[in-house]
Design a protein that fits this description.
Helices cover 42% and strands 14% of the residues. With 200 residues, it is of the alpha/beta class. The structure holds zinc ion. Zinc ion binds next to loops.
């Protein structure tokens, strides 16, 4: 598709093409879809984008997305407050919540240790995790990191750090294929990996 030199259209194509997984062609298709859509739809989309930036923040306790000081999971009195499930990212909270097989709290690390990408342990929320274990009455920490070399290195690092605390330390059962991401696995596979989690 040839670009037409219309700056409003080119701007939108540029913006869309920065989204993850969106190539130039898809960006053009999306921009043309907006061009042809009703003014109401275009307004609602623009408002939804502004809204998510203005009205969300990170939970003060677990770093999940939140509308208030604490996220909806931390504020839910029916959750088991003695368990923490450690995940890389908010998308993993969503994937695990979908399984409905976990009723504890979370801790979002914000990534994994990756020397190649220049991510070291002190750039992740590991210190905050240790503080929670010191201050909250935690009985189990489930390390639900994506199965990758970096995920493994992070599990080893955190295990070493937490081994002197009187808590049960577990990881997802093997069976989650190496290199896969929780967000792309089906609900049943994640549910099974949580139920048959292994002690570290
Ligand atoms: Zn929270």
């Amino acid at each position: 598709m040839k670009e037409l030199g219309i700056s409003a259209l080119d701007d939108l194509i540029d913006q869309f093409s920065q989204l993850p997984g969106i190539g130039r062609k898809t960006a053009q298709r999306l921009a043309l879809f907006i061009l042809k859509s009703s003014p109401e739809y275009a307004n609602d989309l623009a408002n939804a984008i502004i809204n998510i930036k203005q009205n969300t923040r990170l939970c003060k306790r677990c770093f999940n997305v939140a509308e208030e000081e604490f996220c909806s999971i931390c504020s839910d009195h029916n959750r088991d407050v003695h368990k923490i499930c450690v995940v890389e990212d908010i998308v993993d909270v969503m994937a695990i919540e979908e399984t409905r097989s976990y009723r504890g709290l979370y801790h979002v690390l914000g990534g994994v240790i990756s020397p190649l990408s220049g991510v070291s342990a002190d750039q992740l929320r590991i210190k905050e995790l240790v503080e929670r274990i010191q201050n909250e009455n935690i009985e189990e920490v489930l390390l639900a990191l994506n199965p990758s070399t970096e995920g493994e290195a992070t599990i080893i690092y955190i295990t070493r750090l937490l081994k002197n605390f009187n808590i049960r330390l577990t990881r997802l059962a093997s069976g989650v294929p190496m290199g896969s991401h929780l967000e792309y696995l089906d609900v049943a596979t994640i549910g099974k990996a949580i139920q048959s989690r292994q002690d570290l």
